[in-house]
Design a protein that fits this description.
6 helices, mainly alpha
Length: 194
C-alpha cells in the first residue's frame, strides 16, 4: 500500500509541476505580449513605423485574454497536487523547540494527532469542493472573460483534493499504527526544521 500511495503522490507532484510550468509560460507570454502591445502603440513606433506597428498589432500581439482566470484555476490544482507528496514524506516544516524535549513516544502521539486532524481537514475540503463543483455545474456559472464553466476549475481542484485526502487518511492510519507498534513506519521529518 505504501508503494501505491508513494507513487500516486509522486505522480500528483509531477502533474502539479507541469501545471506550474504551464502557468509560468502563460504569465511570461502574457507579460511580454502586453509589453509589446504597449511598445507598438507607443509614439516611436506609431510615428516612424505605423504600417509595421499596425500589422503586428493586428496579429493580436498583446496580453493573453483571461490569463488571471487560467492562473486562478491552475494554481488551486497545483497546491492540492503537491500536498500528498509533502505529507507522505513528512515534508511539512516543523518547529521543534518544544517537541525536541519530549520522548519519542510522545512525539509519535503528537504526530498521530496532527495527522488525524490534517486528514479530517483534507476530507472536509474535498467534500466542500465536491459540493461547490456540483453547485457550479447546476447553476452553469462561467468566468467573466473566457466564459469557461467554473465547474471545470472546481472539478480539477476536486481531483487534487480527493487524492490529497486519500493520502492524508492513509498517513493518519499509519501514524496510528506507529503509536500502537512503537516504531516508525513512514518518514517523519524530510522537511525543514526551525
Amino acid at each position: 500500500m505504501y508503494r501505491s500511495m508513494n507513487r500516486l503522490s509522486h505522480i500528483m507532484a509531477l502533474l502539479g509541476g507541469a501545471m506550474l510550468t504551464l502557468l509560468i509560460l502563460l504569465i511570461c507570454t502574457s507579460v511580454v505580449g502586453r509589453g509589446l502591445n504597449t511598445f507598438f502603440h507607443g509614439d516611436m513606433m506609431q510615428s516612424n513605423f505605423p504600417a509595421l506597428a499596425d500589422w503586428l498589432l493586428n496579429l493580436g500581439i498583446g496580453a493573453i485574454n483571461g490569463d488571471f482566470e487560467l492562473v486562478e484555476a491552475g494554481i488551486a490544482f497545483a497546491i492540492f497536487a503537491f500536498l500528498p507528496l509533502c505529507h507522505m514524506t513528512g515534508g511539512h516544516a516543523t518547529v521543534d523547540i518544544f517537541t525536541s524535549l519530549l520522548s519519542q513516544r510522545s512525539n509519535r502521539i503528537l504526530l498521530m494527532i496532527t495527522s488525524v486532524v490534517f486528514a479530517a481537514v483534507m476530507v472536509l475540503i474535498a467534500v466542500q469542493l465536491y459540493a461547490g463543483t456540483a453547485s457550479k455545474l447546476r447553476t452553469g456559472q462561467t468566468t467573466q472573460l473566457l466564459e469557461f464553466p467554473l465547474w471545470w476549475a472546481y472539478a480539477l481542484s476536486l481531483v487534487g483534493a480527493a487524492i490529497a485526502a486519500t493520502v492524508a487518511v492513509y498517513v493518519a492510519v499509519m501514524r496510528i499504527f506507529e503509536v500502537a507498534r512503537g516504531h516508525d513506519i513512514l518518514p517523519t521529518q524530510a522537511g525543514a526544521e526551525h
